[in-house]
Amino acid sequence: MLQLRSLRRGIVATRLLLGATLLVGGMAACTDEADTVAAPVINTNTVVVTPRVSSLRVGQTQQLAASLVDKNGAPLPASAITWTSAEPTIATVSATGLVTMLTTGSTAIQATINGVTGIASLQGVPAVATVTVTPLARNLRVAESLPLAYTLRDASGNVLLARAVTFSSSAPTVATVSADGVVTGVAAGTTTITVTSETRTATYPLTVEIVLPVNTVTLSPLNPTVAVGGTQQLTATLRDANSAVVTGRAVSWSTLSAASVGTVSATGLVSVLTAGSVVVSATSEGKVGTAVINPLLPGTPLTIAGANGTTLTWYFEVPAGATSVTVATTGAGTQDPDIFVFRPGATTAACASELAGPNETCTITTTVTPGLWRVSVLAYTAYSAVSLRATITP
């Protein structure tokens, strides 16, 4: 009986040992299998395509280049490059990376090296179909510079901007043209200006002339009489040093009189607003011509009237060589206008007469400067039917 129990204990022990061995072996097997699973490989290489972005006109070509680099940008050995276009109807690409733009639109060009792909973006823009030059308003003058205006359009007539444009002159000794299209007259004659953009050109015949500067400005009518509330159109005639009439010059108009007395437009139209003289000037290239509307004509009496406290002003011309100037008012009753006489351009009166009554006299015998003199009549009281006269002694 004792031997049988010992045998059973041995069998149980053997089974337990075998189970433990199998368990340990199984665990070891699982551990070895897990250790041998490979980690996924991440490719950090990239393909760089240059140029990455391009704008091409229709029909234009662009050579692309591609290279394989690592994550640090260092070049790597590469096999052959495979080129493809995402939109071959917009642009095609050859086996060597030469892109041809077929139409407007955008597409991506792909370059594949060793299974890695890089892209470049291309935009198709319409080509210049026509170039037109806007003619200058007049002939160019020697030593004058003017910009040329031009317009670029595509085949559909749309205006194109930001395109490269070049300019040239067939006769630079007559006129030169700058890189931005400004023409400068060099000598009298003719030349042809050529404007080019892409494959299109336009030519413009340019004439350069010698023009003498303005020497005199004459206004007409010179001394018109215009009623209060009326208007008068003045004309400026410009002449050069040879007395030849010149045209196409800028003329500016102005008045020396107060705006409450009269005004002049940019074209020389004078409006008379109150009694008194309106002095109008026209200036061109530094030369000035003057006309007086409603002047006080020397030797000719002018009947005047004014409300109490008002000041009316008249202008009269004193010629060179005059020895004295006398300005006087005559009238009846107790009405009382006072007079103040000013030399040309002066702000201080050369003479003032402020007597009681309508009869005033100012006589100036020194510094009788030729030019446009001014007389202001101040109404100390209201007056009417008073005669104003200027007398000049040669």
Report a brief summary of the structure.
This protein has one helix at 2-35, and strands spanning 46-50, 53-57, 61-63, 65-69, 82-85, 91-93, 98-101, 105-113, 116-125, 130-134, 140-141, 145-147, 149-153, 166-169, 175-177, 182-185, 189-197, 200-209, 216-220, 231-233, 235-239, 252-255, 262-264, 269-272, 278-284, 287-293, 302-306, 311-318, 324-330, 337-342, 351-353, 360-364, 371-379, 383-393.
Describe this structure in words.
- It is elongated, with a radius of gyration of 49 Å.
- Residues 1-34 have low confidence and may be disordered.
- The longest helix has 34 residues, at 2-35.
- The protein has one helix spanning 2-35; strands at residues 46-50, 53-57, 61-63, 65-69, 82-85, 91-93, 98-101, 105-113, 116-125, 130-134, 140-141, 145-147, 149-153, 166-169, 175-177, 182-185, 189-197, 200-209, 216-220, 231-233, 235-239, 252-255, 262-264, 269-272, 278-284, 287-293, 302-306, 311-318, 324-330, 337-342, 351-353, 360-364, 371-379, 383-393.
- The relative contact order is 0.08.
- The strands form 11 sheets. The chain has a 4-stranded mixed beta sheet with strand order 2-9-8-5, with no helix packed on it. The chain has a 4-stranded mixed beta sheet with strand order 11-18-17-14, with no helix packed on it.
- The protein has 394 residues and is mainly beta.
Features:
single chain; mainly beta; four-stranded mixed beta sheet; 1 helix; elongated; disordered N terminus
What's the arrangement of secondary structure elements?
Layout: H1 2-35, E1 46-50, E2 53-57, E3 61-63, E4 65-69, E5 82-85, E6 91-93, E7 98-101, E8 105-113, E9 116-125, E10 130-134, E11 140-141, E12 145-147, E13 149-153, E14 166-169, E15 175-177, E16 182-185, E17 189-197, E18 200-209, E19 216-220, E20 231-233, E21 235-239, E22 252-255, E23 262-264, E24 269-272, E25 278-284, E26 287-293, E27 302-306, E28 311-318, E29 324-330, E30 337-342, E31 351-353, E32 360-364, E33 371-379, E34 383-393
Parallel strand pairs: 2-9, 11-18
Antiparallel strand pairs: 1-4, 3-7, 5-8, 6-7, 8-9, 10-13, 12-16, 14-17, 15-16, 17-18, 19-21, 20-24, 22-25, 23-24, 25-26, 27-34, 28-33, 29-32, 29-34, 30-31, 30-33
